């Protein structure tokens, strides 16, 4: 007999199944610290029920994730299976452009000149 997916699931368990967190206890800690919002309201209970259509907002890896629950899973499967559990509504990540290098790498002669300057100290000559 095939196992039917539940209609609702605990928030910490869903975040773990969808592979947003490596362990369920990490998900539970983030929730209990009040860093997760469910449909705009802050959630502090790890057993809060999540249903299809709910929107979750939380910080992860220096960006804000906005996730809509698309399905409730029955197990923590591979990443390809986990990606089917949600829709990512997060705004595109703004990558700060890395500044171009000012110049080439200093040569040995340049490094010796800098070392000599540092060795003399501030305000000292030769």
From TrEMBL:
Chain ranges of the RNA-binding S4 domain: 9-72
Molecular functions per Gene Ontology: RNA binding
Keywords: RNA-binding
Basic and acidic residues compositional bias, start-end: 92-103
The UniProt record lists the keyword RNA-binding: yes
Ranges in a coiled coil: none
Record-linked InterPro entries: S4_RNA-bd, S4_RNA-bd_sf
Segments for region (Disordered): 88-126
Keyword Phosphoprotein: no
Superkingdom of the organism of origin: Bacteria
Membrane-spanning parts: none
Name assigned to this protein: RNA-binding S4 domain-containing protein
